[in-house]
Amino acid sequence: MTSSSVVPVQNGDESAAQEKKNEVKDQVQPVIDENNGEGSSNNGNTAQFEDNPGDLPEDATKGDSVSPVKDDGNTQENQENLEENKVDESKKDDGQSDSEGGEKSNDSGESSGGQGDSAEENSEEKKSDNEESNEKSESDENEKKSDSDDGEKKSDESSSEANGEDKGDGQTEEKAEENDTKESEKSSDESKDDGQVFPSGAQSELLNETTTQNGSFSTQAAESKNEKETQSSSKEYSWKVCNSTAGPDYIPCLDNWEAIRHLPSTKHYEHRERHCPEEPPTCLVPLPEGYKRPIEWPKSREKIWYYNVPHTKLAEIKGHQNWVKVTGEYLTFPGGGTQFKHGALHYIDFIEESVPDIAWGKRSRVILDVGCGVASFGGFLFDRNVLAMSFAPKDEHEAQVQFALERGIPAVSAVMGTKRLPYPGRVFDIVHCARCRVPWHIEGGKLLLELNRVLRPGGYFVWSATPVYQKIPEDVEIWKAMADLTKAMCWELVNKTSKDAVNNVAVATFRKPTSNECYEQRSQQEPPLCPESDDPNAAWNVPLQSCMHKVPVDESERGSQWPAQWPARLDKTPYWLLSSQVGVYGKPAPEDFEADNKHWKRVVTNSYINGMGINWSSVRNVMDMRAVYGGFAAALKELNLWVMNVVTIDSPDTLPIIYERGLFGMYHDWCESFSTYPRSYDLLHADHLFSKVKKRCNIVAVAAEVDRMLRPEGKLIVRDNVETITELESMFKAMQWEVRMTYSKDKEGLLCVQKSMWRPKEVETIKYAIA
Question: What is the set of domains in the chain, with CATH numbers?
């Protein structure tokens, strides 16, 4: 009778756990300690870890509820989960709001106001205070989603500032190691489960401490509340299959035909921009007939299954340029593109030879490829240790981005239209446009000025379109206009090559200035400098502006220095993170960054790689749905995969830090669908995302979006509070997904599920998605 409350994830799931045991071989048997059989208290039980950022000793775990793993039951995953769960419980107990507890301010970071000038909320406030109505920031979008959202953000900020430095945020790695030694000394006598799921170690001391600190009995109110929550979260879900014109390729925010039909103009590609439905769909996208497991990387770079992306139009139009060809049951990619018919690698080396300072994979690590086609350029840049964020509009060339993703190459559906791209200012080392068909020179260079916004000072714009080398009148005229525009923008033409003998194209490379001297000396202030109030990082639904932001010159300001060379930059604390700034988890920003980095290395190495039953060699396209500093992605560096880091628009704006590390990502609001094709990703990771999202959006729609983005047999790893985990487990079971693992401790849980090929029989027609 020493246990003081019930943890919901265990409740009525005994039979489900039993089923899982019967289904899967080589699984871990649950261990229930006699002291803790019913779970642990939800208050006051974690004094030892009050200052902890999630870096607890690896063996400080004892499971209340372990469901099987489809592996040999590597125990460290369970240990890692407990470490974090402990910490989260502490944060909830220390008086933070439910939203922060669910959000796990420790591990995930959205509860904090972040660094003063980098939190997206702050940029929104600045923008709404200082700018005219034509440059609205994200706050407008958020208001549309929920009137109470701003209030929630403010309470998040204030409570995290109040609690930031003393509750749940400060324990150092050294302290964790101390605990490790102390606890392992004590544990051998006390452990009751030698040789079972957990190795003997710190768990016994932890358990004893938990029970003594939880000496009071649970209240009837708490028991009843838990039971009611459990019942509501274990309700039955029934799914339908979406009927839309796009069929298996449906992207809700890009296939909203009702909105597209009512656009006043399509002159600026408005019809290719995002137009999200007010209510996102809650149905499941059908599979193409004959779909099979994708070919693994690196073979996928050369060929994919035709039936997975059954589109031949692009092969007919672009086959002569070696984009894509139909070869039996495969679509094959000879590695070419419009400007490099004879292979991307030769073209990549030709660029570096023309400007050696580009130094692929050292100085230049993260690039933006505009109008990417099937993304062969980005696909072959992996051979040079370069990450390319490739984008192209949906349907301009049938399924080009879908081909890229199926090949295992990062790409998103986007267009240079009327709004800023969803990236911070000054983050890309290089922007590349081969024959991207963007009219850079028109309307005062508005689109080129958007590239200027996202390009680092000292970064390069590499352009190999026909105006660089063809002498027909139209091209000559465009080159002259570009030469004038780039000069007015203070871009230096570093080199304009003669035609390359192999691909028969030339390349012009421009460099963005690293000081403001040229801007000040211009005889005409055209294009103008942006007003001081214009935040270059505000990028969510913000209209394009025909102006340039000043180059940062203060040494402590981001963009004033070039990052360290790759790979050193991955683990290096950004120079512009100051100790005077409070990080996402409440510590001084540099310490916060380092603690997060160590924490995710530990979780990934000890747990995800070995403890989940995941065959990582079949994982290529990964998304961290709620990245903070990019620690999860950084910890996966040695694997042959890439990670799309998503920073949600209502969390601290840490995306510039992710880019500084030589990783990439984008802003997104999970109340809307992501700009990617169905079946794009092999693995999705959601660390305390769903508990936050469900406060302002329909969690059923978010689960349907996860199903849409994930490939059949793909995995979803969720870390969240138990109530949310239980709710999600019910939803995914109703989709016939396989539950690979569930784990809970102190109202915190972990879920690993695998998507199946199942699709519902019942159909739901999406009226706005019918062309």
Answer: 335-521 (3.40.50.150), 589-769 (3.40.50.150)
